[in-house]
Design a protein that fits this description.
By secondary structure, the protein is an alpha+beta fold. The protein contains three helices and 16 strands. Helix 1 packs antiparallel against helix 2.
Length: about 280
């Protein structure tokens, strides 16, 4: 509970500072509808996340919170708590991504800020999803993280797409595919989104996975986010599998296979190997 309250504090000031702002290509964003979503999410969903992940057989990740705004709509009224906390905004980064999908564009807004009481840096990322042709704002994604490096989202070119092939030939080092990766990850011919949530350790970068549903609404895939975490080195569309290849110690490589059941729309861990022993 304490960690969730801390993350809530660190998120409130950034959201309040956003207020209303306009982007020529992405329209208007107003804080009035995001605050009632984020606050109960951090207090309720954040506190209950650990137990839910354990019941699903997933690995709990208490350093980040990821969700699509549509999952918590309509919002419930909440009290304004921002006058109780003090924050310093350290950096603000904005990137408009128009080459990652033929179905939508993405606007990224990242704020890195510090709680002046606890002197703890944190980050709030909001991804605005815009329909490619009509330019209508169709969804938003929010991630809070304590483990973004200083260069995370600093370079707008640090992205990759397996559908448009943008930067897809770029060398992948330490399982870092980019800050944002677009691909069809559940084999339904719709572009899905993976967004970095933690730079991880020896195995590489951790991602949050958002699957596209009807009307370009996105829902977080908890199994991929909490149990797979790494971006797959191989996307096997013919057999509907994702294969991760992660360093295991100084000499070995760990390979895990995850197979998607289209009927039940669930994932199953179907294989594991260690190479180089």
């Amino acid at each position: 509970m304490g960690d969730s309250i801390t993350r809530l504090k660190l998120s409130l000031q950034t959201l309040m500072s956003l207020k209303s702002f306009k982007y020529p290509e992405f329209g208007v964003f107003n804080q009035s509808w995001i605050l009632p979503i984020l606050i109960p999410y951090m207090l309720v969903v954040g506190c209950n996340n650990h137990a839910k992940q354990q019941s699903d057989g997933a690995v709990p990740n208490d350093t980040t919170r990821s969700f699509a705004m549509g999952e918590y709509w309509p919002p419930k009224p909440v009290a304004d708590l921002t006058d109780k906390f003090n924050f310093n905004v350290l950096t603000v980064t904005e990137c408009a991504q128009t080459k990652l999908s033929n179905q939508f564009d993405i606007l990224i807004k990242l704020k890195r800020y510090s709680d002046t009481t606890n002197h703890q840096d944190s980050c709030l990322l909001i991804a605005f999803i815009k329909e490619k042709h009509s330019k209508a704002l169709v969804d938003s994604i929010c991630i809070t993280s304590l483990f973004y490096f200083d260069n995370t989202f600093a370079n707008c070119d640090s992205v990759m797409s397996f559908t448009t092939k943008f930067n897809s030939k770029r060398e992948v080092v330490d399982n870092y595919f980019g800050d944002i990766v677009v691909a069809d990850l559940n084999f339904d011919n719709k572009d899905d989104i993976a967004i970095i949530n933690d730079y991880g350790g020896n195995g590489g970068t951790f991602y949050s996975y958002f699957m596209q549903g009807d009307k370009k609404k996105f829902t977080i895939d908890r199994f991929l986010t909490d149990s797979v975490t790494y971006f797959p080195s191989i996307i096997d569309k013919s057999r509907q599998r994702l294969i991760t290849q992660v360093p295991a110690g100084a000499c070995c490589l760990s390979e895990d296979i995850y197979t998607f059941n289209k009927s039940s729309k669930t994932w199953k861990h179907t294989g594991h190997k260690i190479f180089g022993e």
